[in-house]
Amino acid sequence: MTSGVIEIEGLRKTFHSLRRGRRVAVDGFDLLVEAGQVHGFLGPNGSGKTTTLRALLGLVRADDGRMRVLGASAPEQLPQVAGRVGAIVESPQFYGNFTAYRTLRLLALAGGVPVGRVDEVLAQVGLADRSHERVKGYSLGMKQRLAVASALLKRPELLILDEPANGLDPAGIREMRDLVRGLAADGVTVLVSSHILAEIQLICDHVTIISRGRRVAAGPVTEVLAGFDRHECLVRADDLTRAEELLTAAGMAVTGHVDHLVVGEVADPATVSRTLGEQGVWVRELTPMRPDLESVFLELTGTPASPAVPRQVDGSTPHHDPAVGRQIDLDDFRGVTS
Ligand SMILES: Nc1ncnc2c1ncn2[C@@H]1O[C@H](COP(=O)(O)OP(=O)(O)OP(=O)(O)O)[C@@H](O)[C@H]1O
Q1: How far apart are the first and last CA of the chain?
Q2: Measured between alpha carbons, how far is 117 from 155 in angstroms, rounded to an integer?
Q3: Which helix (H) or strand (E) holds 105?
Q4: Which intervals hold domain ABC transporter (predicted)?
Q5: Residue 122 DSSP SS3
Q6: CA angle, 235 as apex, 229 and 237 as ends, to 5°?
Q7: Nearest to 122 by CA among 159, 161, 103, 149
Q8: Among 38, 75, 115, 131, fewest CB within 10 Å belongs to which?
Q9: What radius of gyration, in Å, describes the C-alpha atoms of the chain?
Q10: Which of 20, 26, 27, 51 most suits a substitution to test ligand 1, by most atoms within 8 Å of the C-beta?
């Protein structure tokens, strides 16, 4: 196995419950995150992202598989590296009556971090101006940034964020994006799980896509996308019916739509305009269609990636485990299993 900041090989986890029966959450999953990457962990609702992260952090016991974090075998040796890892798994809970400053100060004292670090992380996440307000008055985005601030107290080399953009409005999503980019620029390796593909495409350089507990794609975002490039072109012309006939007669794979054509495997778009122009059909638009993560995700997982339409890949209703909805205290790493 190549050495990485996070290495997961053959992870398996099945949940058993009387009410819901047996549910395979993660089914032989592999993940490799290397130093310096901003790595997107993508998958539809219920595909196994949170279970994977919980297993990695020792919050749920894996049935099988090998996992390493910063070279330490997980979860057994996690305490050795816990000070170098920041992790937020789903929405963290804070005391509403405390200010952000007080919250972080307490966490710093509890974690043996110099209190001077509190102002630094508050500035880093853009909360310095509001740090003396009570957390209960914070927006969700501000609470998310406070969570990231708490995870940054120990200057982690690795930051794991589970769905950091969940529930945020566009401005909050942009703030979170800028924050993650800034951390990456400072050399922090970041693993971000999400089903908001446009976000992942904007901030991540590498991606692993999970579907039904299995890895279905992994690699640099550009390479994963290139693997799905069918060199299609969108064509609009003054006589669409005639254009379709001419391009088909020229041996091109053409799909007709109401107001445009899609022509497949076009090595050089000039062949399209030449074929049509020579017959007096004038091209109004000729646009190469590049795959985006959204289309690749849809093709790989068979699931539309709309945050507005949560859909479990296994057809069940989304699972909400109260134990998941909290920030992981790094001390929790010690011997926690389930
Ligand atoms: N504690 C649990 N008990 C029983 N089933 C569970 C438990 N946790 C997760 N599951 C099931 O395991 C599967 C994977 O869930 P998981 O939460 O890991 O997916 P996810 O990709 O993080 O989804 P989401 O994007 O909705 O958070 C789902 O079918 C889920 O219902």
Answers
A1: 27
A2: 9
A3: helix 100-111
A4: 6-237
A5: helix
A6: 175
A7: 149
A8: 115
A9: 24
A10: 51
At a CB cut-off of 8 Å and minimum separation 6, what does 206 contact? 33, 34, 37, 38, 39, 40, 218, 219, 220, 221
Tokens of 90: 């789903």
CA dihedral 301, 164, 155, 222 (to 10 degrees): 40
**Ligand 1, pocket-test mutation among 8, 15, 303, most atoms within 8 A of CB:** 15
Question: ipTM score here?
Answer: 0.96
Residue among 214, 180, 154 at smallest CA distance from 39 = 180
φ/ψ (deg, to 5) at 42? -110, 140
In sequence order, the 6+-apart residues with CB closer than 8 A to the CB of 294 are 197, 198, 305
Domains for the chain: give ranges and CATH numbers: 6-226+294-331 (3.40.50.300), 232-289 (3.30.70)
Question: Residues 38-69: pLDDT tens digits?
Answer: 999 998 888 999 999 999 999 999 999 999 99
pLDDT at 2: 53
For 102-129, the pLDDT digits (tens) are 999 999 999 899 999 999 999 988 899 9
Task: Write out the DSSP string of 247-287.
Answer: HHHTT-EEEE-SS-EEEES-S-THHHHHHHHTTT--EEEEE
Residue with tokens 């998941």: 324
The DSSP output letter for 8 is E
Contacts by 222-229, CB closer than 8 A, 24 or more apart = 224/293, 224/296, 225/290, 225/291, 225/292, 225/293, 225/296, 228/291, 228/295, 228/296, 228/299, 229/290, 229/291
**Rounded Cα distance, 78 and 56, in Å:** 9
| C-alpha span between 213 and 12 (Å, rounded) | 8
0.80 exceeded by pTM: no
What is d(CA 22, CA 7) in angstroms, rounded to the nearest whole number? 27
Report the nearest-CA residue for atom 25 of ligand 1: 45
Distance between CA atoms of residues 236 and 221, nearest Å: 30
Between the CA of residue 241 and those of 256, 261, 284, what are the distances in Å?
8, 9, 14
